[in-house]
Amino acid sequence: MSEGSGYQGKDRQSRGKSPSGKPGQHFRHSPSRAKAKDNAQNAGGGNQPVHHTAHQSGQLPHFHPADKAGNIKKDGSHYSYPK
């Protein structure tokens, strides 16, 4: 595809854009770590999710859905839970 065609790649195409123009992020808060893990695993088609601790102060730990190889699915999904 040529530059400026509007094509954003498969993983970014379904994410939409945030007001800043960057790919959208989707945060779903769960009441517990176990529920967040279950939700991320379901979103990943049953694959083991990837866990991240809070990246910065004020952020929450979270899980990402993963593919069969264990790579984060690039759909912008985050399944957070209380610290």
Q: What secondary-structure arrangement, pairings included, does this model have?
A:
Elements: H1 10-13, E1 26-29, H2 33-43, E2 50-52, E3 62-64, E4 77-80
Can you walk me through this structure?
Helices cover 18% and strands 17% of the residues. The chain has 83 residues and is α+β, with helices and mostly antiparallel strands. It has a domain at 25-57. Strands 1-4-3-2 form a four-stranded mixed beta sheet. The longest helix has 11 residues, at 33-43.
Provide a compact summary of the structure.
Residues 1-83 are annotated as: Disordered. By secondary structure, the protein is of the alpha+beta class.
Proportion in β-strands: 15-25%
Helical/strand content category: alpha+beta
**What is the element string, with H for helices and E for strands?**
HEHEEE
**Overall pLDDT, averaged?**
81
- Roughly how much helix do the residues carry, as a percent range? 10-25%
CA radius of gyration: 14 Å
The counted number of beta strands is 4
Number of continuous helical runs: 2
Instruction: Give the distance, in angstroms, between the N- and C-terminal Cα atoms.
Output: 44 Å
Defining key terms:
single chain; 83 residues; alpha+beta; four-stranded mixed sheet; 2 helices; globular
